[in-house]
Every structure is written in structure tokens, then in C-alpha cells.
Amino acid sequence: MDTSKKKLSLLSFFAITASMVMTVYEYPTFATSKMNLVFYLLVGGFLWFIPVALCSAEMATVKGWEKGGLYTWVSKTLGRKWGFAAIFFQWFQITVGFITMIYFIVGALSYALNWPALNTNVWLKLIATLVIFWLITISQFGGTKNTAKIAKVGFFVGIVATGIILFILGIVYIAQGNPIKVSFGSGAWIPDFTKINTLVVFVSFILAYAGVESSASHVKDMDNPGKNYPKAILILVVATILLDTLGGATVAATIPQDQLSLDTGVIQAYSYLIHHFGGGEWMVRLIAVVICLGVIAEIAAWVVGPSTAMLEAAENGLLPKQMAKVNQHNVPINIVLVQGIIVSIWAVVLTLGGGGANLSFFVAMALTVCIYLVAYVLLFLSYIKLVKEKDDLTRTYHIPGGKNVKIGVAMVGLLVSIFSFFISFFPPSDIGSGKGGTYLAILIISWLIIVVIPFVIYKYVGEKASDKK
């Protein structure tokens, strides 16, 4: 085994994991809920993010479960068939997620370069999307060390630094007595749960925390994983809830709701504040480029995270043997290439289909959510079975409080995941009237097809591998 990939420090692993969860470009989405965002982020953090993080931290430190992440956890408790399904769902959902991440980079570069056509001409946008994705993918062929380097720069410069700068500008703006675009009154903090749209919005906030378990495939590369993995996850929980709340509140307080752009709203907020304090346009363009570093780090971490876990399934014979091939840096090269081909197909379909303003785009995004939530249901079921039937297994981290508390934490996460799954099928208001039925039909049929795929692969590849053993 190539030793160059050993050992990931606590800081490096934290940066990789944080890059997969924390994103500055989601602040405008949070801001659309005004000060309700504080309630959504705090409650979503406690009811879902913390359960996912704690259960993942315990399962990742079980002796012998260091490799394979979600695949290993589910396989060791529910069986290999379900383990393969779980990692397939995690791996598949990000193939669409990559497109939305790269769309932000393209939009930010279009702004920074003063080249509107880059974001409005579909052919230019498609070329830019493919070039950016494949350059980042190729950079990951160098292994975990490359991922860690990109993650550290992207996280600390593109996420933490830009988030802190935005918050400081916002605080000074408010302290000077400038007009605030949202109400801070007593009735502004708690949403109205009698409206179905409130539940839909709540689910979107919960899913903003998704991905914390995906870096578990790197646990085997960590220095002292039993101690450092739980520490990294717990620090991440606090940092994510804090930065998302402060960032979203700053955008909400400075940009009027009717002028807020979901695509470039964070750059819009910087532009407003920088110009308010007498800064030049070049500062805004520089910030746009710097934010891109954070998104690049996010993409880089996701390129290899689930793919590395899929490698464990391939090595167990659950994929064609060609998929188990790794390069000298232990990167599952063929799995990553197949992932790249799927992402390229999505890029063509969604970009040439009209980007964010079409039915196919909304269906694709909802599909990834519904697929990913199935993986989370399996994660929580696996943890509950671990606690109930395999509690004697050695691990270096336990959720404190004993068996009943452990099961209670997992049950909360499980119930929120199931609730979010059903709410995710509600058509978004943006698709327009008269299209709800079509949207729902396409989404349900697509979901059923995707859900069946890993079980078909297992039947024709995995069972044959088991028979040969």
C-alpha cells in the first residue's frame, strides 16, 4: 500500500469533512426565510444533524469498520445487499449535486470576469461546467493528500474567511444604524407550522446539513481515528450551525427579499456591503473568485468520498472486477471515471434543457434528495441494530448516556429522515401551475427506477461473487 496517503491530521480531515457540508453559497437560500432561519437551522441541527454526526462517529470507530464508511456500517448490521444499496444511493445523489455546485462557480466566474455570456449562453455554460468538473476530478487522482490540500485552502479561505468577512461587514452595517431589511421582533423567529410550505422549507434546511457521514471513507487514513474522528465531527457540528446561522442572517438583514437572487445572492450581499462602505468593484470580483475556492474544495471532497466507499463494495465482488482497480495513490480510478461520465450526462441534459428554469431540473434535484434520504434511513437502522444486537463490539467512541439514549438519538434522526422523505415529494411552487401532476409522476417513476438499480446489480454481480466464495 502506498504510504504517501498516510496520515491525515485532525485539521486535514476536518477540512475535508467541513468542505462537504459547509457552503457559503447557501446563505441566500437560508435568507429567504428571514429570521425564521435561526429556528430552522437550530432545530434542524439538533433533530437531524447532531444525530447523523453522533451515530456516524460511533460506527466509524468500531474496530474493523474503519474502511468503507456507510457501506461497511450497513453491511455489518443489515447485510451486504443493503450496504451496497446505501453506498450506491450516497454515490448516485452527488452526481446531480455536482452540477448545482459547478453552476455557482460558473456564475461567480462570469461575474468576476465581467463575461455574462459564460452564464447565459448554454453552450459556453456547458463547456465551462464540463471543463471545471473534469479538472477537479483529475486533480483527485493524486489521492487523499491532494484532497486534503485543496480542502484546507478551500475551507479556510473560501468558506471560513469569506463567511467571517461577510458577518463583520453585516455587524458594522447594523451597528451604524443603517436600515435592516428584516424584522427582529418577537414574532419573526418562530415559523407558522400550520402552512404546508413551512414544512417544505424546514426539510430544505435539514438537508443543508447532509454529507457529514461521507468523509468516513477516509477514517482509515487518519492519525489516531478513534480520538480524532469524533472530535472533528463534533467541532464541525458547532461550526456549521454557527456559521450558517450568522451568514444567512447577515444576507437576510442587508438584501431586500424581492431583490434576493438564490443563484448569486451571496455575491449580491458582498457587493451591497462593500459598495456601502466605499469599496471598489474589484473587491467584489475578488470575493467571488475566493468563494469559488470553497466550492472547488467541496467538489474535490465529494469526488473521492463516496467513490472510495464504493471501492470497498467493488473489492467485495459487488461490482464488476474492473471497478476495483486503483492507481498508485489508491484512488478507485474506474469508479471515479464512471462517476464523471454520469455527471457529464447530467450536465448536458440539465444545461441544454434550460438550467434551473425547467421541470427536469427540479425533478433531478428532488430525486437526489429522495434517494439520499433512503441512505440516511438505512444509516439510522444500522446504528439501532448495532446498539441492540452488537453492543459488545469494541469502539473508541460512544454516544454518551447509555443504550436508551443512543437508541433515542437514532430514532429522532430516523423519524426526521422519514418525515423529510415524504415532504420532499411535494412539488415546489417554482414549477408553475398545472405541472404538479407531471412533476410528481416523473419523480416517483424515476425514484422507483433508481432504487431498484443497486438490487439488480447485487443480484447479477454480488450473488455470483458470493457463490464463488
From TrEMBL:
<keyword id="KW-0472">Membrane</keyword>
<dbReference type="Pfam" id="PF13520">
    <property type="entry name" value="AA_permease_2"/>
</dbReference>
<feature type="transmembrane region" description="Helical">
    <location>
        <begin position="153"/>
        <end position="176"/>
    </location>
</feature>
<feature type="transmembrane region" description="Helical">
    <location>
        <begin position="39"/>
        <end position="61"/>
    </location>
</feature>
<protein>
    <submittedName>
        <fullName>Glutamate/gamma-aminobutyrate antiporter</fullName>
    </submittedName>
</protein>
<feature type="transmembrane region" description="Helical">
    <location>
        <begin position="233"/>
        <end position="255"/>
    </location>
</feature>
<feature type="transmembrane region" description="Helical">
    <location>
        <begin position="196"/>
        <end position="212"/>
    </location>
</feature>
<feature type="transmembrane region" description="Helical">
    <location>
        <begin position="405"/>
        <end position="426"/>
    </location>
</feature>
<dbReference type="GO" id="GO:0022857">
    <property type="term" value="F:transmembrane transporter activity"/>
</dbReference>
<feature type="transmembrane region" description="Helical">
    <location>
        <begin position="331"/>
        <end position="353"/>
    </location>
</feature>
<dbReference type="GO" id="GO:0005886">
    <property type="term" value="C:plasma membrane"/>
</dbReference>
<keyword id="KW-1003">Cell membrane</keyword>
<keyword id="KW-0813">Transport</keyword>
<feature type="transmembrane region" description="Helical">
    <location>
        <begin position="122"/>
        <end position="141"/>
    </location>
</feature>
<dbReference type="InterPro" id="IPR002293">
    <property type="entry name" value="AA/rel_permease1"/>
</dbReference>
<feature type="transmembrane region" description="Helical">
    <location>
        <begin position="282"/>
        <end position="304"/>
    </location>
</feature>
<feature type="transmembrane region" description="Helical">
    <location>
        <begin position="438"/>
        <end position="461"/>
    </location>
</feature>
<keyword id="KW-0812">Transmembrane</keyword>
<keyword id="KW-1133">Transmembrane helix</keyword>
<dbReference type="InterPro" id="IPR050367">
    <property type="entry name" value="APC_superfamily"/>
</dbReference>
<feature type="transmembrane region" description="Helical">
    <location>
        <begin position="82"/>
        <end position="110"/>
    </location>
</feature>
<feature type="transmembrane region" description="Helical">
    <location>
        <begin position="359"/>
        <end position="384"/>
    </location>
</feature>
